[in-house]
Design a protein that fits this description.
The longest helix has 21 residues. Helix 2 packs across helix 8, helix 3 packs across helix 8 and helix 9 packs parallel to helix 11. This protein has eleven helices and twelve strands. With 381 residues, the protein is α/β, with parallel strands linked by helices. The protein is 35% helix and 14% strand. It has two domains: 109 residues, Alpha-Beta Complex (Aspartate Aminotransferase, domain 1), CATH 3.90.1150; 249 residues, Aspartate Aminotransferase, domain 2, CATH 3.40.640. A seven-stranded mixed beta sheet has the order 2-8-7-6-5-3-4, sandwiched between helices. Helix 7 links the parallel strand 5 and strand 6.
């Protein structure tokens, strides 16, 4: 088992009695990210206006390389960054036809940044949305693929559902059924939690994720892999999207780059990129792979479930521990989820709540001893 707690000393020592089991929501940052955050400030002071040459010429390409390496992409320039995935979603939507409502296929278990936005467009008749139920999980991919064959402008689904932890592993079936639709996969609960090889889909499907959760880099460093030729001219566009544009000077149309930069926005806070690169360099220096992170989390999950008290039986798990198609968190469906969450908070255990579903997240900052202490506090309830 891995023991990397000492590398998270600043986050963990801020409250030594706190047990953080919400790595799927806000993962603690490794200590190296603090030095990187300071470096962003120091570079701004040292370079002033010249900092952008350094950020766009060195810092951002390094971050693209890290993402491409983890996703097994052939071209790092297909990766574009933004402060959040909602911003990238809006640019994707702006690639869809404007003369009629956008036809959207999605699941009923997408995160709020998508569900709220698409529901609001639906209210004004700007979108027609079909939602496929995520459960039962074992038939989801087949049901979703069958629905996709009807034809849509945008198909959007999660690789790991945020409200259950179930991982969609039969993506090839969905990709084959997507037709001419823009196909986007929200990988936020998969990236740096489960090994992801996007090479088979890189020419066809967008992939969105970010640094706030398992990438351990905090806010402001989300990204999207952009397959070549799909969504060539988003209407929601920032002036950075013109960098590298190949259009002729006399072209009357707004020019775009042909790689992932066509989805770029405008001036942004680059400190997240510094933190992301520092965390990635630290992991590489430690010889830690995503497969190792996932194995570590699953081992902790197994220890946790094996010791559960009667107060929280494993039968209440939405995705059973025996199902390998799951992310790095466990979700319990409870009648009294809110009360349980409150009691855990009073016991200084950080979890999180989604309606009647209570989630426990597992990550690199935890050890077997932390799980044993969590079980002891649960038993005391």
């Amino acid at each position: 088992m891995l023991d990397l707690k000492s590398h998270f000393s600043r986050f963990l020592s801020s409250d030594p009695q706190r047990l953080h089991f919400a790595a799927h929501s806000h993962h603690p940052w490794p200590d190296v990210s603090r030095d990187a955050h300071q470096q962003a400030w120091d570079d701004a002071a040292r370079l002033i206006d010249g900092k952008w040459e350094h950020i766009l010429g060195a810092v951002l390409p390094a971050a693209q390389g890290h993402v491409a390496w983890h996703l097994n992409l052939s071209d790092p320039t297909s990766v574009v960054f933004a402060p959040n995935t909602h911003e990238l979603l809006m640019r994707l939507l702006s690639c869809c036809p404007a003369e009629r409502p956008v036809r959207v296929l999605t699941s009923n278990s997408e995160f709020h940044s998508f569900t709220r936005q698409i529901a609001r467009l639906e209210e004004d008749g700007l979108a027609q949305v079909q939602r496929v139920a995520a459960e039962p999980f074992d038939s989801f991919a087949a049901r979703f693929a069958e629905a996709a064959r009807a034809g849509f402008d945008l198909i959007y689904l999660s690789q790991v559902f945020f409200n259950s932890g179930f991982a969609v592993t039969a993506l090839d079936e969905i990709v084959a059924a997507a037709g001419d639709a823009l196909l986007a996969v929200d990988g936020y609960h998969a990236f740096m939690a489960r090994p992801v090889d996007w090479s088979a889909f890189e020419a066809r499907a967008f992939y969105l994720a970010g640094g706030y959760k398992y990438a351990m880099a905090g806010e402001g460093v989300c990204f999207m892999h952009c397959p070549p030729g799909w969504g060539a001219r988003p209407r929601d566009t920032g002036w950075y999207a013109a960098f590298g544009a190949l259009s002729k000077p006399d072209d009357a149309r707004v020019a775009y780059a042909e790689n992932g930069w066509r989805f770029m926005g405008a001036t942004f806070d680059a400190s997240g990129l510094y933190r992301f690169n520092a965390v990635q360099n630290w992991l590489q220096g430690q010889g830690i792979t995503v497969a190792m992170i996932h194995d570590h989390a699953q081992a902790l999950q197994g220890r946790f479930v094996a010791g559960l008290p009667r107060l929280l039986p494993s039968e209440w798990l939405v995705v059973p521990i025996t199902n390998p198609a799951r992310g790095n968190f466990l979700t319990f469906d409870l009648d009294d989820a809110e009360a349980m969450h409150r009691r855990l908070t009073e016991a200084k255990v950080v979890t999180d709540l989604r309606g009647r579903r209570l989630r426990f997240g597992f990550g690199l900052h935890q050890t077997q001893a932390d799980v044993d202490e969590l079980l002891r506090r649960l038993q005391s309830l």
